[in-house]
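Entry 12.
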Amino acid sequence: MSREILKITGEDREHFLQGLVTNDVARLKDGLVYTAMLTPQGKYIADFFLVPDGEAILLDVDAALAKSLAQRLGMYKLRSKVAIAPAGLHLHRGLGTRPDGAFDDPRHEGLGWRAYRSEAQDDDTTDWAALRVALGVPETGAELGPDTFILEMGFERLHGVDFKKGCYVGQEVTARMKHKTELRKGLARITADAPLSAGDEILADGKPAGTVLSVAGTSALAYLRFDRAEKGLEAGGQALGFEKL
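Predicted 3D structure (tokens):
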């Protein structure tokens, strides 16, 4: 997956971001912050990492979302003393011992480390898609899209939302989902005896119950209606096992 690294500078950078994103920007003192930006209706716009970088904050986002995200951030800038520009850096990722200048991925300890370098990475052989499926981690364009509510996609489990930080765009809807409702739909890991296919409809006793999303052989992530997932799950003509994430 291609990533774009933006650089946010200016004396108001932390205060500016704090009112927009789902996580607490103050956590930058401890390393990477995984967070998202939402619509006022609480739906997904983009997920990204904020990265401490001296007198700046780097923003690590899917390249397909970078331009529109920068434009949306610019809409909120108003008189804030903030500038947003490409950083000219490349993402490096890996497992095992974290190199100097790298940061632990805050979503899950099994996701290793992330670093930001002036040169492109050419030594990464990790099957990140299979690892995401194994760990239950959603991705832009597969599990995460314009109709997504982030709590259904496990953002609390992935340390991507803070319920004590105060207001941000979409906060009211997200807090209501957390405190006043039980999630009836969301991310699950499914398994089968033969390879699965992304996009297949999942049925429960013949009724629509969800969709197969990211696939890694006979395992996959799926968007599932939990109230229909107790028995009789199938997709592509084969029976499924499932685990709520």
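Annotation: Residues 185-244 form one domain. The mean pLDDT is 96.
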